[in-house]
Amino acid sequence: MPTMDLTLIHAPAVYDFRERSIMYGPVSDMVPSTPVFEMYPLGFTTIGEYLERHNIHVRLYNLAGLMLYKKHFDVERNLAAIDTRAFGIDLHWMPHCHGAIEVARILKRLHPRTPIIFGGLSASIFHEELIAYDCVDYVLRGDSTEEPFRRLMERIKVEEASWKVGVLGGDLSDIPNLTWKDKTGRIHVNPLDWVPSTMNAISLDYAYPMKGVIRHRDMTSFLPFKGWLKYPVCASLTSRGCNRNCLTCGGSNMAYRDHFGRAQTAWRDPGLLIRDIETIQKHIWGPIFVLNDFLQAGEEYARYFIMGLKGKLLNPIGFEFFGPPKQGKELYQLLNDNLPQWSVEMSAESHDDGVRTAFGKGHYTTAELEQTIIDALDAGAQRFDLYFMTGIPAQTCASVLETGAYVQHLYERVNFDKRLTVFTSPMAPFLDVGSIAFDNSEKAGYKLLARTLEEHRTRMVQPSWKHIMNYESAWMTTDDMVASTYQAALDINRIKGEHGVIAPNIAAATHTRITEAREQMNRLDSVLLEHRGTSPADSAARTAALATLKQEFERLSESTVAEKTELNWPHTMRPIHLTSNAKIWAQELSRNASAALKGEWASIGSDFNYPDQENS
Ligand code: B12
Ligand code: SF4
């Protein structure tokens, strides 16, 4: 059997998280992952599917997940056994800066002749620092790497014979978006000019990883996060980039312009989006989140998309809106007239108009927020999830502590409607690299505690989330931020519990966990104070003392500020899912078997036709 062409590896945030004792805190409470951030980027699926469509065979390998689910998973033995022409590692989210590099080092040691390619949003920002590591051969920059990746892989396949310790012999200056080393070690930065103006040539096709599971007879290395099989939530993406400019967001319009070469948001044709959703629900029964507010694409797009879904939806669907829709009630009515089960999620960041304006969401007031919640619930929304955040510009400790009282008021306004669920979480572990606030930190009111990749790597292995954070805000000390985050979360949890928004046992368990997490942070401070010396003996004593707290650190860093299941929306499996999955299983087994007889891999790319990648 030939080797795989490309193996895409997702590293844990901190490589040796199984050994280290770190109080990560509530950094991942609002996403399905644990603090290991085991979820791999959606881009793995779009890259894998695109390359397979072009006869380049790709395997997804969620190393973070494998290390998390299998306690005794032997990393080196398993990585040594991978037979592939190239490795791809994502440094998409900055919290993976420690794990991604450590895994690259191991791979380089185990497979010195196999090229290692980095990519993702953070890799694009730190490409020059990354390429300087011996364990990194290439960095593919930008938000759309499918086609540049195809071109690089074609060269890797053709010029395999001329590799010199992982680096191709030939000239690669024609591959867009590539930062690379030539065989003399000289670094080249090709122009970042592959920035397609639409998102139509790629496909977020969930059948692709499912076919991968069948091809490799391995479910675990494809699983997106812990618990996905019980709650198989899926995302559908409307766009690349954003029209807005929130100060601390690494996905803002300016961040995309300055770091990923994108002048304009790239939209996915609404017809393709509908097809994506239909494909998802053929195989998967979980709720579908439509991410990136599609209302930004304009009225015509929105109508076409919503009305096009009429009569087609089986799964619950949720829409992320960046603020109250300007069409008001009419928009919600349109959703309700066309869709059986729909929900909304909105990140208002703060109840305080001044703070929200300083953050960059001053295009609506708290009064308008309340009205839109009422309108959505009146129109028939299944759920309305509202998110607040601590650590944002102009936000003081007092403002965070007011959140509880505001949430009480909000629930009163909606008559304690259980469909409204409110959450709060900290901006942690990092202020997004590449955001306006990161690039202009002083002006934005932040003191950066880490700027470079290496500085971020050092912070990721500090004892707790307050030591890991890469910023200090001018309006709140880090200690205040930690204390006020836990307090606001306690208040919101109490209100939800008292009024039956969540079950009493869930509220009680969350209350206990937050209180214990707060105590644990104090205990940690005492340990650090007691062993504050800098000698090797002090350091050893500190490590030993922290090690005794490891289990508690882990227990209190998952589902702290809210129980993860509170994020889950109701869903049910239907017979159609069973039959279409059985069909795909049978088809793939037989395709794989006949390809294997010829000594080949069957392609697992999408069966649909897509236009060629069009660059802007
Ligand atoms: C969708 C999304 C999510 C989804 C994740 C879905 C997923 N599995 O990818 C959810 C909501 C779960 C999420 C969670 C988080 N997110 Co988020 N997310 C986004 C969002 C809105 C869109 C990203 C997108 O459009 N992707 C499109 C897909 C198709 O492309 P892609 O995954 O980016 O991959 C392409 C390129 O990045 C690149 N690439 C990616 N990996 C690799 C690997 C290789 C080898 C190569 C060559 C290329 C490559 O090529 C791909 C294909 O072209 C952006 C905001 C924005 N406007 O961009 C934030 C954003 C990416 N998220 C961000 C953050 C901080 C997070 C969290 C860390 C927050 C937290 N503390 O919980 C978590 C991490 C979750 C985890 N790993 O467990 C920041 C990242 C800042 C930074 N540079 O670190 C962003 C920019 C903004 C924000 N604050 O939300 N997120
Ligand atoms: S926070 Fe949301 S709305 Fe604001 S810039 Fe980022 S992706 Fe856009």
Describe this protein's structure.
This protein is 42% helix and 12% strand. The chain is globular, with a radius of gyration of 24 Å. It has two domains: 4-199, Response regulator (Rossmann fold, 3-Layer(aba) Sandwich), CATH 3.40.50; 232-567, TIM Barrel (Alpha-Beta Barrel), CATH 3.20.20. The longest helix has 27 residues, at 504-530. Helix 8 (207-216) crosses helix 25 (575-597), helix 12 (329-338) packs parallel to helix 14 (366-379) and helix 21 packs antiparallel against helix 22. The chain starts with a strand and ends in a 19-residue tail after the last helix. With 616 residues, it is α/β, with parallel strands linked by helices. Residues 242, 244-246, 249, 251-252, 322 line the site of iron/sulfur cluster (SF4).
Outline of the structure:
By secondary structure, the protein is of the alpha/beta class. The protein binds cobalamin and iron/sulfur cluster.
**What is the C-alpha radius of gyration, as a whole number of Å?**
24 Å
- Count of distinct strands: 17
Q: Mind telling me which CATH architecture of the largest domain this is?
A: Alpha-Beta Barrel
The CATH C-level name of the largest domain is Alpha Beta
Indicate the overall shape.
Answer: globular
The poorly predicted ranges are none
Helix/sheet category:
alpha/beta
Compute the number of helices: 25
Order of neighbouring strands in the sheet with most strands: 2-1-3-4-5-6-7
Helix content: 40-55%
> How many discrete structural domains?
2
Largest pleated sheet:
7 strands, mixed
Percentage of residues in DSSP E strands: 5-15%
Average pLDDT across residues? 92
Amino- and carboxy-terminal Cα gap: 39 Å
Which molecules are bound besides the chains?
A: cobalamin, iron/sulfur cluster
The CATH topology of the largest domain: TIM Barrel
